[in-house]
Known about the structure:
By secondary structure, the chain is α+β, with helices and mostly antiparallel strands.
Amino acid sequence: MRTEVAIIGAGPAGLLLSHLLAQDGIESVVLETRSRAYVESRIRAGILESSTVDLLDAHGLAERLHAESHEHRGIYLQWPGERHHLDFVDLVGRSVRVYGQTELTKDLGRARDAAGQQFVYEISDTAVHDIETDRPYVTFTRDGEAGIRLDADVVVGCDGSFGVSRTAIPERVRQTWERTYPYAWLGVLADVAPSTDELIYAWHPDGFALHSMRSPTVSRLYLQVDPGTAIDDWSDDRIWSALAARLGHGQDGWELTPGPITDKSVLPMRSFVMQPMRHGRLFLAGDAAHIVPPTGAKGLNLAVADVGLLAPALAGLLRKRDATLADAYSDNALRRVWRCTHFSWWMTTMLHTTGDPFDAQLQRSQLTWVSSSSAAAQGLAENYAGLPIGF
Ligand code: FAD
Ligand code: PHB
């Protein structure tokens, strides 16, 4: 097999990249270990920042998003006895949209189907070769046939946090930074109308809680738990009573309405950045190069921003034989990656309890400041609603 760009991973980064490249007349093949049904039902992100929506709009990918997503002007920040609304539109003139990653992935898949995109699902043993030459290639196994070879001009690793492509960058040039947080999130999806109009981020002595949503009839909620937590230790009743306590059921007459839980999982919390994001003819985009804890709702948006930079860079390299943007890709992408890494760490450390009473006092002071000073609130709003793609 031969193509211009071999894309590893059919998550949002890989699918969006194949779409943007096709709009520039560049052919690609997308390789994916999982089945399409699995990829499209994997419950993950829910918040799209304004620059993500703008980019999808500009490339004809936002029709269903506009019809079915909900615009949120801001978020609530709360702690026992207090709830404050931060209005991003008033603060920085931008809003966010609630739209599940599942829905975005389906939209991207359908757009690629309409264009006749070549996908290869359910592969294994993916390996990247010869990236320091002009003739890189990928090998994989499919239906028991090992060593299938896809030749390309460029390989792009969009294979997420557990992918293989980042390890193809030689150790002598690779640099990584990592932080593992001493807590995890227990996430649930519930068939119940959200008890709030916009997301609630709650600090509580028992641990952080987040009330998010997917639609007018589906709620998404999270609880801070210990990293080793077994999901079986958390019955539905225990989850709802912890959520009620931490989200302030009864506070100023507010009520949390429980409902049937349809999905439960425990997610680790990690920050990870790798550089460079390009070596020779291999480029990395999205979670393949960086991971943020979900508190800032940045992971999916960062993946989209990387692709927004990478597509024109590859068009320059492959169509105009101009490597300027390709050579600048890693530095340009990493500037935004580190901004989002800092913001995600900042939100995470402000909201999660550590058991240390000194930390708790600092967090309460920070929350009071962010909720009462428009300068501080603007900083949060500017980062949460999203900086421009080229930031
Ligand atoms: P992925 O979506 O992980 O896609 C990578 C793909 O590559 C996968 O389909 C995988 O199966 C495939 N793959 C892996 N290895 C190989 C291989 N060897 N060969 C071929 N294919 C391979 N982000 C936000 O912006 N906002 C949020 O609100 C938010 N909430 C989140 C909540 C949760 C519970 C989780 C888990 C994440 C959340 N994120 C959020 C993060 C977001 O989901 C990720 O950052 C996003 O999925 C990254 O997209 P990606 O395409 O880079 O990687
Ligand atoms: C979600 O809806 O899944 C979600 C929302 C905001 C976050 C993280 C996850 O910060």
